[in-house]
Specification:
Blueprint lengths: L1 E6 L6 H11 L3 E6 L8 E8 L2 E8 L6 H19 L6 H10 L4 E2 L2 H16 L9 H6 L14 H10 L6 E3 L3 E4 L12 H15 L5 E5 L2 E5 L7 E6 L6 E7 L4 E6 L4 E4 L2 E4 L2 E2 L4 E2 L3 E8 L4 H7 L1 H7 L4 H7 L4 E6 L4 E3 L1 H4 L4
Antiparallel strand pairs: 1-2, 2-10, 3-4, 4-8, 5-7, 6-7, 8-9, 9-12, 10-11, 12-17, 13-14, 15-16, 17-18, 18-19
Helix pairs in contact: 2-7, 7-8
Length: 350
């Protein structure tokens, strides 16, 4: 038999997580086989950060390194959450208020570095990954713990699109940021979890941890192995409880999924998700989910951020878009339910 641990994305409390899972399906399944011999010592801890369930699994042969390492990771997650929250008081929300007034604002060097990184990712994606459209996201009601089931006025959406807020509008110094366009309102929701994964790996390594798996609401990164085999994860079906496939994650690999089943509302029989196309100001409709696998020095960040432009661009642009972004491994389900699978990932799926 196999033991299963199931996690749902986008909620603040366990009760809400259970209700959300029952209504909308499961986000990610983590699987580990029960071997005949004794399994390696595994220390696990869960928490709620970034509005979602986080789980850290550490193989700790010493029995003493895991607890302080996990505590340090969760402290960093909490710090990022308080720094980058888009609609509650935070360093980012204070910066947004200053940008709306046309002012240059002092920021921490850490936030400045993250904004430069997000600016680079936006340019690579032809601005389909665009954290500058926080105003549009708020207009659609997604700056709330529970999405507001209301389609905004078409004229208001068109006005935001006409102002064309882009990450390229930002002037980012070492410790200050300004914008050439006062319409820029930053929302790093499509970046923060991936950055947190990369930070988690660095912290775990600094504590002498060689084998761990970090899951932030379905964004996952692997460090080392789970005993005598790789860490194994399942890719959630976007419309059903259960998985599309399972996958062994190798050391340093991360997967990120963008889907229309995480944060959405329905109105007039239509689904409106939180992934907004900056070209027309409308929730993207061409895909149900896009999962990408990345293995490089910034695997967590890239797996989180770069699944968004592929989701927004749609199935017709999937292969070309992935190639331009250097993504060789992906699994996507389009709006009709058809699965699109890259050859590199097909060879590894179970």
């Amino acid at each position: 038999m196999a033991a299963l641990a199931v996690y749902n994305h986008g909620l603040l409390r366990a009760g809400k997580a259970r209700m959300k899972a029952a209504r909308h399906g499961l986000w990610l399944v983590l699987l580990w086989a029960l071997a005949a011999c004794s399994p390696p010592p595994l220390v696990q801890q869960q928490a709620y950060v970034f509005g979602t369930l986080v789980e850290i699994s550490v193989v700790d042969d010493s029995g003493s390194r895991a607890t302080p390492a996990i505590a340090a990771v969760l402290a960093r997650f909490d710090q990022l959450h308080r720094q980058l929250h888009a609609w509650q008081p935070s360093e980012l929300s204070r910066l947004n208020a200053a940008l709306a007034r046309g002012e240059r604002a002092a920021v921490s060097p850490g936030l400045a570095a993250m904004l430069r990184d997000a600016q680079t990712l936006a340019a690579q994606s032809n601005e389909l990954f665009n954290p500058a459209i926080g105003g549009l996201i708020a207009l659609w009601g997604f700056h709330a713990d529970t999405p507001q089931a209301r389609v905004p006025d078409a004229a208001a959406v068109a006005a935001w699109v006409a102002r064309q807020p882009r990450m390229a509008d930002l002037v980012i110094g070492t410790d200050a940021v300004s914008s050439r366009n006062p319409a820029v309102q930053l929302d790093l929701g499509g970046y923060a979890k991936g950055r947190a994964l990369d930070d988690a790996v660095a912290i775990l390594k600094a504590h002498g941890i060689k084998n761990a798996l970090v899951n932030i609401g379905g964004n996952v990164i692997a460090l080392g192995r789970h005993g005598d085999r790789p860490w194994r994860v399942g890719i959630q079906h976007p419309r059903k409880a259960g998985t599309l496939a399972t996958l062994d994650l190798l050391d340093g690999e991360a997967i990120g999924t963008s889907g229309d089943y995480q944060r959405y509302f329905e109105s007039g029989g239509r689904r409106y998700c939180h992934l907004i196309d900056p070209r027309n100001g409308q929730p993207a409709t061409g895909m149900q989910s896009v999962t990408i696998l990345v293995r490089d020095a910034h695997a967590g960040t890239r797996s989180d951020a770069l699944s968004k432009p592929l989701f927004i661009a749609g199935a017709a642009q999937l292969a070309d878009g992935a190639a331009r972004l250097g993504i060789r491994t992906y699994l996507a389900v389009d709006s009709s339910g058809k699965t699109h699978l890259s050859p590199d990932l097909a060879a590894r799926l179970r």
